Every structure is written in structure tokens, then in C-alpha cells.
Amino acid sequence: MTSEISNKTVAFHTLGCKLNFSETSGLSRLLLDEGFGKKEFDEVADIYVINTCSVTDNADKECRYLVRKIRRQAPESMVVITGCYAQLKPREIADIPGVDLVLGAAEKFNIAQHLKEWSKGDAAKICSCDIADVTGFNASYSLGDRTRTFLKVQDGCDYNCSFCTIPMARGRSRSDTVAATVKTVEELAARGDVREIVLTGVNLGDFGKGADGASIRYESFFDLMKALDEVDGIDRYRISSIEPNLLTPEMIEWVAGSRHFMPHFHIPLQSGSNRLLSLMRRRYRRELYAERVRLIKAAMPHCAIGVDVIVGFPGETDELFKETVDFLQALDVSYLHVFTYSERDNTSALELKPVIPIALRQERNKFLRNLSYMKMQEFTRRHAGQTRKVLLEGHVKAPMMEGYSDNYIKVATPYRPEWANRIIDWTL
Predict the structure, then answer these.
(1) Hey, what long-range contacts does 116-121 have (CB within 8 A, 24 or more apart)?
(2) Mean pLDDT, contiguous 10-residue spans, the chain (428 residues)
(3) What predicted TM-score, i.e. pTM, was given to this entire model?
């Protein structure tokens, strides 16, 4: 690859979370500004960029599958791997046949320069560093890919949960400033086509630490929320996920009276057993979680609450799994995101016993996914007949279009172009 790149095309694929999605969109705009042409991932392109996750084994396996697919579809194309998997296991990725360039956490936003300097036929090149040296914050947001815009305001994590590789993949907690984030949101509002912004990060509630990991004096995630609520031109905000110990009663009360923050929280639980929460090194106990749910429902009975849960964690006996099931059944929550525990290198959970058989992990996952379905059905039924604000998607799943109410109830209706990317009063 030379610096003459105006005729080169690039296709992107994202694995993992909303944070990855916002970064992929930002990387795409970086390359378009440098003169690259954009292709869809299922088309033939000169360059393919896969932004990886490494939370589960499936993400690793899917990365390998995608590389094999590209080799069959476009054997002369260049393959670039970035994201969490690339930071954690760069040599393993470089050894995958067909991979040309591996960009770690510190180098992914320098992708344009790396592409200019690389030539097809070179050995797979790794551009990475020790995660302790990753201190910069790169703001990013998605645009044009979906009706909702995912805005990254925080990165990294200072927590050390025993099952998690994110601190090793993304480094210490760091974030943008309130002023810089407001400026970005004002620019998005000026476009006139951004209706909803989803605030994303690794540990959003830890917002307020600078690029070097130091605290920014007087700034917090709550400060950011209040500042964004005053920006004209953005109808809706959602918080992608927030730790229960960082979701304060003051924040809950404020959201209940907010102009633009939706009555919708996604709060990781991981287990309903205090014993397992301790083994996971979580920073709360189930009693605090239940109290947060109670406060939310007291302030906003209509509020949607999503829950992250891990099944099959080492030591999760039948009795402890039942604790989680009973706890979730009693909680007034709306839906669950269920994750099957998978062993991750260099995590302390690897030392815990007993190891839960894979088949039992999968069985427990299925049980909780069924519980999630029933929870969402009940939550939706409870609001039947109410009129709520629904943002209808600009994208079409012919002949239907879909959207979400303010409290995250999904609706579908025959496609009407005049409703695309509009907020409609909708009777559920």
C-alpha cells in the first residue's frame, strides 16, 4: 500500500458492544476523510477491518471465521484486525492465515498511517504496546449506520472483576471532558437528523478521569448528564450501562424529571448470589442492587430496567444458581442479557473451583433467556393501551419498520417513509 489511496476501498465489521460500534464508525470516517472508498463487508474491498471483542470465546471464533471468509471471497485483499482481541492476543491473531496487520489499543486510531505504510506481501505486522502505556482518550460516535447514535464518552476500567479482561484490553479508566462532550453533541444536533444518543463506555459511571487516568476536578457522570440535558436539538438520551454502585439515588430522582433522558436503565448484576458476587470481585451486594431497582420504580413505575447476568461462573452450585433465579424473579426488571461464563486467560477466576460443565452452563443460559422473555412480555402487557413516544427507525425490514418507546418497548408497523427517524405518539 502506498500513500496513493484515493482508489482503495475499505469495509468494516464490528464484533461486540456499542462502544466498539461507535469506534468502528469513527474509524470509518477517518479513512473516508483520507480518501478511501467505503464498501459493505459482504462486498469485495481492497481492505477489510475487523474491530474485535474478546468478552467471550464466540467473539474470538467469529473473528477467525470472518478472516477465512475474506480469504475465499477476496484473497488479494488486506485484512486488518483491531479491538480488544487484537490488544490481548496480537501474536495469536498475526498467526491466523490471511491476517496482514494487527493494531492494538494505542494504534487503532492511527490506522490511516499504518495503511499507507504497509504493502501486501509483507509478513503480518503487529502494532501494539503494553496496556499500561495506553493513556489517551479518543472520542468517537456512530453516524448514519442506525437511527440511534452511539457516543463514546469513557474508556477503560479501574475495576478488576475476576472474570474480565477489559482492563487488560482497554487500560485504565479515562474519559472526555464535559465541555468537549457537549461540543460534540451540539455538532450532532446541528445536523438535524440525530434524534437519540446512547452514551457508551466501559464503565460510564466512572466518567471524570482524564486521559492520564487522573480525576478531572469537579466533574462526574452526573455533571455530564445534566449538561447534555440542556443541549437543544437532541430529543433523547439513553445510558448504555451503569454499575449499580455508581448509579446514585440523586441520579435516579433527576432522570425522573429530566427533559431528555429516557426512563430506561441497564444495570449489570452478574449474579443474585452474594457469595458469587464476592468471588467475581463485584463492588456491591444484591441488597444494594434491589434497593436501586426499588428507587427507580418508585420514581418511574414505567421505567425499563435491563440486567446483565453471567451463568456458569466457577463455584455456581445448583443452590447458588437458584439464588440468582429467585432474586431475578422477585425483581421488577424488564429484560435480561444473559452471558455464559467462558474462561479468559490471565483472569483470577481461572483458579476458582468447581468448574461448571459447559452443558450445564448452556442449560442455565437457556433458562434465564426464557425468564427474560417472560419478563419483557409482562412489562409490555403492563403498558398496553398507553400512549408513549416511539422513535421509528429509518432503516426498513421490508415491508415493516420498527422502533422503541421512551421506555424501550419495541413496536413494529408497516413502513411509512414519512415516519422514518421520527418520534411518533404511539398507543401500545
Answers:
(1) 116/1, 116/2, 116/3, 116/5, 117/1, 118/1, 118/78, 119/1, 119/2, 120/1, 120/76, 120/78
(2) 66 88 92 91 94 75 91 92 91 91 91 84 81 86 81 94 93 93 96 94 91 68 97 96 98 97 98 98 98 98 98 98 98 97 94 97 98 98 97 80 96 92 95
(3) 0.92
